[in-house]
Amino acid sequence: MSEIDSFDDEEAVLETQRLPLDLWHRERGGRMVEFAGYWMPVQYEGIIAEHLWTRESAGLFDVSHMGQLEISSEDGDHAAAAKALEALLPGEISALKPGRLRYSLLLDENGGILDDLMVTNRGSTFYLVVNGATKWDDLAHLREHLPDTITLNHLDEHGLLALQGPKAVEALARLGLEPAMADGPQLVDLKFMQAAPYLWGDRPLGISRSGYTGEDGFEISVRGEHIEALATALCEQPQVKPIGLGARDSLRLEAGLPLYGHDLSPDTDPVTAGLTFALSKRRREDGGFLGAERILPLLNDGTATTRVGLVLEGRMAAREGASVWSGEQQVGTVTSGGFSPTLQRPIAMAYVERPCAAENTSLEVEVRGKRLVASVVPMPFVPHRYHR
């Protein structure tokens, strides 16, 4: 099942936490559901309408459920903090320049994926954004494995907004943000996977040009006491509407981006998942990160299965858990699926056996007792439009 299908009814969940914008969402007609331990809006006017609006204009997503972490060395040795992170992440953190961010993976001793995350070099600290459903386990894992000389702070007083879509830069620039540092870049000059601090009046914002939709856009870290004012100011721009988790899921699926807990898990390694780009060249050669003993041989030997994209004939969508067949042999399982509002057809991600993973391979997906014809296609399903 997809992210949307995992949402529970409000009455069925106890002790669910409320984010700073909870009332703000409800006042704007957000249908609130439980997700990752928080009440969050799944939709406002409808998933398809919100999806298409984000593709055409700019959508504002509240992703404050995600974990924001800051890692530094007690004695100010930034290189030591990078080295400590490299023991846990397979990316070359020491080569990450200030103001740059990188996708990476938190791995266990067997190379299983505990979480996927973004890490930013902020100059004196490293800033990590981890998934909401795993953040407490991530914190425990990091505290267990980081040296005592490394400080880990959970920035739980901060919220996180994502402004996504081709008109995101126009809308955000209208707020008159100024670089927080004298030599900092203007907002419009940020490129994809770059970050910098800004001031909105006297309110500090941490902004990266990144996101989870395949569109141009920004993620904005803001203190909890300022997030409502910022969200309101953004939605006063004609380009911007608030968007729920439902459209976030359909957008990321079209973009071919995996969702932790569905397409990624501790039972999945980076090679099988098709995430080898997160393993930097030096790390492939030198190892030295958790799980390297299992992962590095897989780069040479290959894996039995791999993650692929599927397009299905007809209008019926395949959901997580649907079986994938080649003739009378089951060769895989769908991990994410849904109807693509952009392509107007069902799409899915699945893990299939390597001999069935070649582009244009014809397979079948079993949905509600019926076998639906499907073809293997490259991802993303919809081209990325990042500002490079």
UniProtKB/TrEMBL annotation:
SUPFAM superfamilies: Aminomethyltransferase beta-barrel domain (SSF101790), Folate-binding domain (SSF103025)
One Pfam family it belongs to: GCV_T_C
Top-level class of the enzyme under EC nomenclature: transferase
Presence of the UniProt keyword Aminoacyl-tRNA synthetase in the record: no
UniProt xrefs under InterPro entries: GcvT, GcvT/YgfZ/DmdA, GcvT/YgfZ_C, GcvT_C, GCVT_N, TrmE/GcvT-like
Residues that span the membrane, as ranges: none
Keyword Transferase: yes
Gene Ontology molecular function terms on file: aminomethyltransferase activity; methyltransferase activity; transaminase activity
Keywords, in A-Z order: Aminotransferase, Methyltransferase, Transferase
Entry's family note: Belongs to the GcvT family.
Name under which the protein is recorded: aminomethyltransferase
Organism in which the protein naturally occurs: Novosphingobium fluoreni
